[in-house]
Amino acid sequence: DSVDLPLEAKAVLDSMVNIDAQLNELTFKEAEISKLYTKVHPAYRTLLEKRQALEDEKAKLNGRVTAMPKTQQEIVRLTRDAESGQQVYMQLLNKEQELKITEASTVGDVRIVDPAITQPGVLKPKKGLIILGAIILGLMLSIVGVLLRSLFNRGIESPQVLEEHGISVYASIPLSEWQKARDSVKTIKGIKRYKQSQLLAVGNPTDLAIEAIRSLRTSLHFAMMQAQNNVLMMTGVSPSIGKTFVCANLAAVISQTNKRVLLIDCDMRKGYTHELLGTNNVNGLSEILIGQGDITTAAKPTSIAKFDLIPRGQVPPNPSELLMSERFAELVNWASKNYDLVLIDTPPILAVTDAAIVGRHVG
Which residues form the Tyrosine-protein kinase G-rich domain (predicted)? Predict the structure, then answer.
């Protein structure tokens, strides 16, 4: 059924439907313009001003509708909603058709060459390969660093280098081939056979090493004139550098000058001077320091005249503590009074503290 409206109400209704259609059209345009410009752009501002004008006009028309009778107001409202909905629907259909035409007329220049393949794990970085490469590179750099350091730092090559640093050099003792051959003699079980004839000063007194030790004897004779006692300690920085060899042969060549010499083996861990000089190891230094031996009868004569030895004795559990006892000081004082020279053979100074302890008692 149709409803007749006065001409004025019909004009107001047509104006409101027209304004709603224009507002819907502006909404579509704003969605497109907002992708290209900001709100301060002239085009965007023109659109906003136009929409505001339509809103104002719509408000005026609503005021005119309010002045109408209730029945006409309801008729106008329902009719406007129906016609506005129809207008929106038609606009959406038109927009859909436009988009379909645009899609059909667009020819794309992109095509799928190969589909993407999902990797089962992390492609990069490869941590295992990086760690392996870092290790290899580190080893190579370390080797290069060591080679360069050894190339430019060749160590001490002559006594003059020590003298330039203020260190006194009393003698330079060469390696004895005769002694080296003797030291290589072993038993069937592989144990070295230390014999009294292995002492270089006795077995080969004309060896160059013995001549160097005689030079050392002369240098020490003058150097010890201002010493506080006649006790001399021999030590080294590491094992097997020849300190026992020098100590034993020095004692032998000094005793050949008609001086009484006592050699004390303070290496209670690995000392072997009793084997080198052909004496026993009974009533040695360790027994004397724990009070089981007599100091006055501790020295054992060797086959070399005026050359006595106090061997190391049995290996104690606490060599350093024994050397710090008053008993050791008494032994050194007794030896200093009864001998012209007392030589003390000590362990390596970097390995244990024994040499530092014994050093307090020497001149």
Answer: 70-150
